[in-house]
Queue: 2 jobs
Job 1
Amino acid sequence: MTEIELSTEEKILKAAEEVFMRDGYDGSRMQDIADVAGINKALLHYYFRSKDKLFEKVFDAKIQSFFPKMGEKFSQDIPFVDKIHIFIEGYMDLLLKNPYLPLFVLNTVNNKDKSAFIKKLPIELSRQVAQSYYVEFKKGNVRELNPAQFIMSLMGMCIFPFLAKPILLDMFKADNDTFDKLMEERIQELKHYVTLILTP
Amino acid sequence: MTEIELSTEEKILKAAEEVFMRDGYDGSRMQDIADVAGINKALLHYYFRSKDKLFEKVFDAKIQSFFPKMGEKFSQDIPFVDKIHIFIEGYMDLLLKNPYLPLFVLNTVNNKDKSAFIKKLPIELSRQVAQSYYVEFKKGNVRELNPAQFIMSLMGMCIFPFLAKPILLDMFKADNDTFDKLMEERIQELKHYVTLILTP
DNA sequence: AACATATTTAACCATTTGGTTAAACTTATA
DNA sequence: TATAAGTTTAACCAAATGGTTAAATATGTT
């Protein structure tokens, strides 16, 4: 295990990500972030002027690391159902590596002071999916449905377990590993569901 | 329109519900709740000793008003698919009347200081659904699947649009009424989806 | 070495916030 | 009407919190 020395700026961003993800914007304390980063509070304000600025940096970084990967998938010239299967695999994989991200993003867009952050989300992606659906529908390869409703369902099915994770852990008396295994299983189950929904 | 004079306690609970739902626990201010209730802060502490106590009262009241109605539905002796259809109708209806509730509950159970609140949720309901599924599966009336995965999907499909509402409003350039109509439509669409998933 | 620049810290400040106190006002009841 | 109990308020308090300042310490450059 080679210890790589992070720069102070990187240490701060890493700590801020951890704390903001765990405690939310309002629940996070600058002192807390400083402690986790192993520095003091004034240094935090030296690097990132304010809590708001720091939060925006963290949010941007997470979004950038998360969504772009998804976009490419839909450019490929393969059947719509296969695209959705690939989406499910890729998305669930990202969620397994970033289990707190959904609540983080949803809280941000629902926060009265942070609703402008909606503009940072890749909403074109959903249009891409809808367009891709219609192409395939005209070919008679998929059942008739409202693509907007389908996308909401798809997202909901993928994301929900991560939002409700504490409830599920309690319900199944499970630990993190068991949860991850359940999510791995889930990938197959969801692929099955969407096939049933989409196949004419 | 007959104006009904609410008691101070009722006014406080109503205001607290509004503020906690909108701003979350950490984002809510006792002064804010007092203002909305049209009283002053000391009176708030006279009726409900602390922010924590008040929050718990609001949480309990919302949970009580929300979940019990769902339980009865599964006692009826009708086909499993019909039970799920009735669940979708009832649940979406409750969500339309309480659009902020999902984020409120999910934030609460994910909050490090509030995870004990998980115990207040009706997790037996999901066991009831699972049991109901197996009875029907033995009769060969439903496809083979993992009921836990199915329930997560069902909940996710119902809840997700309400969590992502600000994003959807922006995406569709829609207002609240349009959103509600989209959700009414969604009831039929979801009933269709679960039929496809469950029918052998 | 000398100088400038970047980094780090302890001490401090103003505001916000949950919560308290003591006094005043209502209401009902003996 | 006197008294007790419940209700309401203004003023206050201590702790927490985001943010600032000025001085100290490294680091690199000439």
Job 2
Amino acid sequence: MAEQPDFGAGPISSAVFRVARAHKALAARLLRETGLRPGQELVLMTLWHDGPQRQVDLVDKLDSDASTMVRSIARLEKVGLVHKEPSPTDRRATIVHATEASFHLRDEVESAWAELERLTVGSMSRSRRTEVLATLTDLESNLSAAE
Amino acid sequence: MAEQPDFGAGPISSAVFRVARAHKALAARLLRETGLRPGQELVLMTLWHDGPQRQVDLVDKLDSDASTMVRSIARLEKVGLVHKEPSPTDRRATIVHATEASFHLRDEVESAWAELERLTVGSMSRSRRTEVLATLTDLESNLSAAE
DNA sequence: CTGCATTCCCTGTTCGGACAAGTTTCTGGG
DNA sequence: CCCAGAAACTTGTCCGAACAGGGAATGCAG
């Protein structure tokens, strides 16, 4: 507790910073028992949801970076949650698969995300949540309009 | 453009993630010409605003980490924006000062933050901004209540 | 005053994120 | 067909963030 890094400059930007940090820290804490680090779970969830795909597809969907993805995949592969296969149709590409072992984590990861959502929205009413989501979407569209 | 990493899991959490990433990326871009990396400007702004202080004070105010602060200060010191002096009253502590050189950056950094704020809130009305800030504050308090 | 917990800082390590540069492979216009 | 440009991946580098561990100085209880 006990911070107000807000020296007057950009109250909303400051608030975004603080929310982002707190949210990420909470996500890290909830994912801790799964052995995953924040970010890795997004890769796995994408693979679980959309099936095997190229690294570049993961990069696009997660709005990540190719070099980040290379290392993230490498780490997931090292712990056996993912494996790579050459694409049969494009020798530049590798297809990333979620392993059987990874599916044993699925419930745990998804319940961690459910818990994250629950803690994030707190005791907000359904209609309030809708407003919050609209607000975040507004911010996102402003930010992406700024390129 | 073109992402919706939202696989149904935690729409608000997903949105927080995306806003956080876009906001940080925008901050990085705006600070680029100052030579600062996102996070360093917060240290400098705190020093400019509150004056020389111990590392632990910076850590507390920015809700950062002691080891992160050590390295951040070291980098700022290497480029001459900050210098450290032993505390006269506590030999464990070092007092961090903003250098003269750093003050030449102040206008640039502060206008980058103003621009960040401007782009973040976009064309929102004053009352809408108040709502947005209230929403972010709500989220922050939920998150910090979750510890 | 002594002993012990606490505070403050530092180092090592790991990871996500981003940028730059380079390799291999593909594709499309000529 | 051929080649220039694009696409997919990789590696190197740097940085913020977080955790573990540790050393030095301080402060407090007894």
